[in-house]
Structures are given as structure tokens and as C-alpha cells.
């Protein structure tokens, strides 16, 4: 049995060790102590929204001098700019690292405006900026905060190894020549990428179901990776009908926002691949949840992405952290999506058609604020898109 002297000596040693540990962990250079303090005291002080066609660049500022950026696109900027500024009122004074809490606060802020394109696209930009701040605060890429990398590189298209062929609005009843034209383009693309490459067809919700069934049969010999947007979202029965009659994998999801809208596809087994767009579906927070939901059905993601480098990076950080992934849409040089070289990144596609994991800290994107201000001075405009059929009626596209 230990004596009283032994116990006192042991207690003194423990106390001395504890004091030493506290002294070490409280030292100024200690990253853990510094991060904890900054994450506790940081607060959002403001939100700025700058319109440069076709994007709204959203900047969130804090009292610690750390700021984050988000990409707002895919909706009318004349409406989304004042909306994101109004939603900024809900997060001012909040701790930006409480990302899930703030996402819920924005999403549930108005019962009559919950969900939908305008709200979800706008929330996405704010969410990206919050993740950007949090990553910078901790000095790590965002994917490190999402559980760390699950892969070493990310497969992308368009590259010499992977190409997607778009369809344009077809009449309600197609003719053989229209089918043949698409088949010929698919065949040429297969010859271009070779037997080890990927060929995809984007039906763009613009091919009538009966015509798509015919078309799918005609392109079957060319081993298409997937048919994208086989139907207009809204009626799950159409997707089920197509899935029953088409053996090529079907993919969709860019216009289905959040976990609630993608769930029916998974429950009914009518999509083989999900294509959420980080800028459309509520940002990194929402896209990560969709990936987890899809994982339970063994459905991989092939994210839709027509965004600036900010939106590309946000999506890539999610992809870097999830287990089931197929291929990522990638157009960093398209000035229609990435205006005036405002959001800068060093993307490099390797010989196999892959890029490395996104850098950091945060999203790892440099914003040229001087260039942004100059571009914002120019006249901005927005024109409603739309398509018509040959008889003048309105087409889906």
C-alpha cells in the first residue's frame, strides 16, 4: 500500500506536469490555442455583393480580418444581388464557423421562401464564403474540414480523354435524320477519345421521352458513360419510364436542390448518377449531405459545374472528401462562366485527364478585387434565356 508521503509526492508531480502542459499550450506560437481563441471570438461584420456578368461575387468580412468569397450564379442577378444583401442581415454579428447553424437559419428564415432556385443559389454563395473563412481561420483546405481527402486526384471533363455531346431542343416527334446526326457526333467523339476515354450525352431535358428511347438504342454500341438530364424535373414517373427502357446509365440533379429533391430519384432507383451543382443546391454544406444520401444507395456523384473558379473550387473540395465519385464538369477557361479573370486558380490537367486536389487555405481561390471593381463599373445586363420549336411554341432546354 502507498504511504501518505508517496501520495503527496505523486500529487505534486501531477500538479507540476499539469502546470507545465498549461504553460506550453497557452504559449503564443501554439496553433491549437490561437485557433480556438480566434474561432470563439470571430464575428461577421458585413457582406458585399458585386455583380459582374454573369456572376455575383459575394464577400463576407469579419472582425478578425479574415474574409471569405462565394459564387452566386444561375439566376437573375437583378434579383439575387439584393436578396443576398438582405440575407446578410441574418448573419451579421454571428460566428461564421457555425456553418450548419447559419445554413439552417438562412434556409428556414421565411416559410414562404424556403427552397427554390433563388433562395438555394443565394444560400450557396453565402455557404461557400463561410467555409472559405473557416478554412482560412484554421489554415487548411476546406476538404480537410470535411473529413480529409478520399482520393489523390479528380477526374474532369472536357479533356482529350473525356467529352460530352450536347443535344439541342428537338420537336415533339423527331425524324430519322435528327437521330442520325446525334449518333454520328457520338461515334466521332468515341473515335476521338478512344476505347479508354469517356463519352457522355447531355439530353438537356430537351429530347422528348419517346425520342430519347429511340436515340439511346442507336448510341448503345458506342459505350456512352451516361445520358445527362433525360427528362424535365418534376414528374418522377417519366424518369421511371425512361429507366425501364434505356440501358445506358442515366444522370441528373443540376436542377434538383437539396436532399429533399434528390431523394425520390434514389428511392425509385431511376438515376444511376447524381449531378448536384454546388452553386445551385445550397453550397458545400448541402452538396456534402447529398453525397452521403447517395452513398446509401451506392450512387456516385458527377457534379454539374458551370461556375467561376470559386464555384469550381467549392465543388472540388466536396468531391475531394467523398467516397463515391465518377467525373467532374470543368470549364475554367470559359469566360461566360469565369468573367475577366477575377477569380484566379492554378488548375492543371494531367496527361490522364485528372487535376490535383484543390489548394488552400479555405477554398484556395485568389480574388483580384481591383479587377472586380473595374469590371463592376461596366454596364451589366441580363437577358432571359429560352428556346422555341419550329412552330413557334416554347421548348424545354
TrEMBL record:
Listed InterPro entries: DgoD-like, Enolase-like_C_sf, Enolase-like_N, Enolase_C-like, Mandel_Rmase/mucon_lact_enz_CS, Mandelate_racemase_C, Mandelate_racemase_N_dom, TAT_signal
Keywords associated with the record: Lyase
Mandelate racemase/muconate lactonizing enzyme C-terminal domain location: 176-249
GO molecular function: galactonate dehydratase activity
Key word Lyase present: yes
The keyword Lyase is annotated on this UniProt entry: yes
SMART domains: MR_MLE (SM00922)
Biased composition (Basic and acidic residues): 388-397
Source organism superkingdom: Bacteria
Name recorded for this polypeptide: D-galactonate dehydratase
Organism: Anatilimnocola aggregata
